[in-house]
Amino acid sequence: MATSSILPLRLPSCARQGTTVRAAAAAAAAAVATTTAQSLEESYGRKGLKFVADPAGGASTAVLSVRNGSSLLLRLGDGLVTSYRPKVYWKDDGCREVLHTVADPSGDPAKAKGGVGLVLNDVSSSGGAQSLIDGSAWAIKDVDSDSYDAVQVELGCTKGKLDISYVVTLYPLSMATAVIVRNTGTKPVELTSRIYSTAPSKFTTIDQYSGLGFRLVRMGFEDMYLSSPGGMYDKFGSDYFLCTGPASMLVPVVVNPGEEWKAAQVIEHDNL
Length: 272
Description:
By secondary structure, this protein is mostly beta strands.
């Protein structure tokens, strides 16, 4: 249902260079994204929240930050959290990027690896699971901030008879993503995704290199998805991620007409 990629092994040393044609197309897209980011900044910008064009792909991105220095990058086009940099040490600035993304060599943002993303599949029909997110146009519905210890951005989109809200919140020692699905149609909708059966309500991931530990807490989801690099590291290379997240699959979530379903995941730590 929602997936996240935490504590990647390491980033590649360099990215491939694109062709002149790709560079020109990327420059044009970046110019449009910059204009969009400026417009968003004028409408929604405030202390702890600003909007920029992502230098890597030019996509409009929200930059969330709180008083202790923790920060988060949210790509607005598809709701992907591309970076999470919490404060984990008292010394210096004390922040460390523990969640990030790796761009695809083709430049296609949809093929980026890592980050925290949302997966919603409709299994109501006999044709198999169909994504409710792919191709959807997300728009900012609301923003909120207390200027010091919490910043929040709410995105929304409509897919058929479903209204979907996706809320991303940054706190000093945690980040949270929540989804709200409202069924405005006349038929029930069954939602499902990946699976880790008999899942705990929360678990801790530890980075052996730094010794930092982070908990992932699920709310509203019944299962958990977990994929470890293990022996597949040689097959997928140095940018293969540890993937984990809450899910519902053994028993699909049923959203009846006129009802709404809410769920969330939280990444938190107490390394300080």
